[in-house]
Write a structure and sequence with these properties.
With 660 residues, this protein is α+β, with helices and mostly antiparallel strands. Among the domains are: 190 residues, Heat Shock Protein 90 (2-Layer Sandwich); 125 residues, Ribosomal Protein S5, domain 2 (2-Layer Sandwich); 92 residues, 2-Layer Sandwich (Ribosomal Protein S8, Chain: A, domain 1), CATH 3.30.1370. It has 20 helices and 28 strands. The strands form 8 sheets. The protein has an 8-stranded mixed sheet, covered by helices on one side. About 20% of the residues have low confidence.
Length: 660
């Protein structure tokens, strides 16, 4: 028999969509406090928020005659009609929060408006009104939530330990504090003060409080606007990347959300700057036209849809990439950072719970040019080449380079290097570098970063054209590293990582311009293939030819490889050819961006000069020139640094010539 559920059951079911754990309650009530115009908000929890949550604000308060109405389902002051959803700028607008919270807990409300002589104290337990009375209290609102899920034991059973639930609340408060630096937040957990922000509007102050000196001292500012999109905040230098996405913070119109488009744009911009499987640190606030935004797709308003996703992706990608490319990011490894890094990891594990997993959309397909040759759907195509952001300085263009063949010792096959070239004013790296914003915390402003604590990044101008004549090439170390002296610093270049990056950039440009040259193989190689591999080869024949592989069907189960890319000649290029086929089979015959870049990087790695290989001074000098001509010379395609540095001061400390 079908019957209509009673209101109490309906409220409890609806509460499950909004109230998942204590952090959900804190989120809804803090957002309401922000919407009330509060400039100071205090959050206090006990037992991870399971037994006690108190949130106090100095906002406008709730009028006495509207208190009971506020706890009805779909009661809200934020919108009045369906059209208002298109322009809703408030954080909470559904009118479900108070009703849902009251259905599964014991709620006490104390509130007063500025035009009232007295305030109101109101209690509601499990959706049932207990009491309402006048009370003396300051202007604003205080919510006290006791015994969450006391009347729904099955749901309470799924909560984690108090420490874990408290960690979720802590993480949430940090996110909200970073999104609204103009509001003073105080967070107390179990009687201990965990966070206290000033509300002075400076995001970097909050980052310093949450993450400390190491993070706040290695940030790059962003403040750009394009059409009706604005991006402000900070991104971390590649060194402070982490093994998960918990350090990627971004807010849309002041709201913390999760967006596959924004996540992908950030991570693609950092590609080749950070190691594989590492993720950057960001605190970004994106402002867009609210009419094009829909955050009403998720009960907790954590997901977002944007009608111009392609433009949004390109905007974020280009601007982050632009900032990264304008900075000289050579790690200074003179400082002993192993203990500090271990300490940071331990603190991170203790402070933050495991992030909730969420699906990231499949990577964008390769650009239409590639899609045309490989029969890929281009509806969501993304250009294969790195976006070239707008750079005012025309000197930022990379020079065209010829590549003669030289023969280093112990190398049987020729290795291509870039010759040393004189550069004119139109062929130098841009020196129009953005200036770092000084750290806002007093001790960061006035003190240098303590020696012997962590790896930091220096901006010594080593990568500029003006500095190049002053480089003193000292020699080769362990037949792998080249030592270079410049202005009281020792720079150490990894010859394999450096040459790998040069080869990678060269191969990418050659492919984009269809300039990859094939080298004939004599005699041709006969490769056995199965029916699935034959299908891959036929579908992507144009792509393989563009990559420099010359092939033809030899029989039903065999292909003849007559030519390979010149850069990989003699370096088991047939293995790369087979790897391409195998990868395409794994991807369901679809060539995505990640796989393509990985294979180009593999080709560059195999073609690059190896470690434990002697090079001449002329060859090393030419390699430095080629590396400096790149947009991002600091990391190989896999994210490893190409050059590190050590200051004269650090070396003198190691020899005890000066005191620490």
């Amino acid at each position: 028999m079908i019957q209509v559920l009673d209101q109490l059951t309906i409220d409890k079911i609806a509460a499950g969509e909004v109230v998942e754990r204590p952090s959900s309650v804190v989120k809804e009530l803090v957002e309401n406090a922000i919407d009330s115009g509060a400039t100071a908000i205090t959050i206090e929890i006990k037992d991870g928020g399971i037994s006690f949550i108190r949130i106090t604000d100095n906002g406008c308060g709730i009028p006495s005659n509207e208190v009971q109405t506020a706890f009805l389902r779909h009661a809200t002051s934020k919108i009045k009609k369906i059209e208002d959803l298109l322009t809703a700028s408030s954080l909470g607008f559904r009118g479900e929060a108070l009703s849902s919270i009251a259905a599964v807990s014991q709620v006490e409300l104390i509130t007063k408006t500025s035009d009232s002589l007295t305030g109101v104290r109101y209690e509601i337990h499990g959706g049932k009104e207990i009491t309402k009375e006048e009370i003396g209290c300051p202007e604003g609102t205080t919510f006290i939530i006791r015994n969450l899920f006391y009347n729904t034991p099955a749901r309470r059973k799924f909560l984690k330990t108090s420490a874990t639930e408290g960690g979720y609340v802590n993480e949430l408060v940090e996110q909200i504090a970073m999104s609204r630096p103009d509001i003073s937040f105080k967070f107390v957990n179990g009687g201990q003060n965990k966070l206290n922000t000033s509300g002075n509007g400076n995001v970097k102050d909050i980052i310093y409080q949450i993450y400390g000196r190491d993070i706040s001292a290695n940030l790059l500012p962003i403040d750009v606007q394009r059409d009706d999109m604005k991006l402000t905040g900070f991104i971390g230098k590649p060194y402070i990347s982490r093994g998960n996405r918990s350090f990627e913070h971004y807010f849309v119109n002041g709201r913390y959300i999760k967006s596959p488009i924004i996540t992908r744009a950030i991570e693609e911009a950092y590609k080749t700057f950070v190691m594989v499987h590492k993720f950057p640190f960001t605190v970004l606030n994106l402002t867009v036209d609210s009419k094009l935004l829909d955050v009403n797709v998720h009960p907790r308003k954590m997901e977002m849809r944007y009608s111009r996703g392609d433009e949004l992706y390109k905007f974020i990608f280009e601007e982050i990439r632009f900032v990264l490319l304008q900075k000289e990011l050579i790690p200074d490894v003179g400082k002993d950072n192993a203990k500090q890094e271990q300490k940071q990891r331990q603190q991170e594990l203790q402070r933050k719970p495991a992030p909730e997993p969420f699906e990231i959309n499949r990577k964008a397909q390769i650009q239409a040019k590639l899609a045309k040759s490989t029969a890929i759907d281009t509806n969501v195509a993304t250009p294969i080449q790195e976006y070239k952001p707008k750079i005012e300085n025309p000197k930022a263009e990379s020079p065209k380079i010829e590549t003669p063949i030289i023969e280093p010792k112990q190398v049987k096959e020729p290795v291509a290097f870039v010759p040393k070239q004189k550069t004119d004013d139109n062929n130098i790296m841009s020196t129009n570098v953005l200036t770092d914003t000084p750290s806002v915390a007093e001790d960061v402003q006035k003190e240098e970063t303590p020696k012997g604590e962590q790896m930091t990044f220096v901006s010594a101008g080593f990568m500029t054209e003006e500095a190049r004549p002053k480089h003193r090439l000292i020699g080769q170390l362990f037949k792998t590293y080249w030592l270079i002296e410049y202005e009281k610093k020792l720079f150490i270049m990894d010859q394999h990582a450096a040459h790998e990056k040069v080869m990678y950039e060269k191969l990418m440009k050659q492919y984009e311009n269809r300039e990859i040259v094939s080298q004939q193989i004599a005699p041709p190689l006969v490769i056995s293939v199965n029916p699935r591999q034959v299908e891959v080869l036929r579908e992507h024949q144009t792509f393989f030819e563009d990559m420099g592989f010359q092939m033809e069907s030899f029989s039903g189960k065999e292909y003849m490889l007559r030519g390979v890319p010149l850069e990989t000649y003699g370096l088991m290029a047939q293995d790369i050819f087979i790897d391409f086929i195998d990868s395409l089979m794994e991807e369901g015959n679809r060539l995505n961006m990640d796989m393509f870049i990985y294979k180009i990087a593999t080709m560059a790695c195999k073609a690059a000069v190896k470690g434990n290989m002697e090079l001449s001074y002329a060859e090393a000098d030419a390699l430095i020139d080629a590396l400096l001509a790149l947009e991002n010379p600091y990391n190989c395609p896999h994210g490893r640094p190409t050059i590190i540095s050590m200051t004269e001061t650090e070396i003198e400390k190691k020899f005890k010539r000066i005191q620490n």
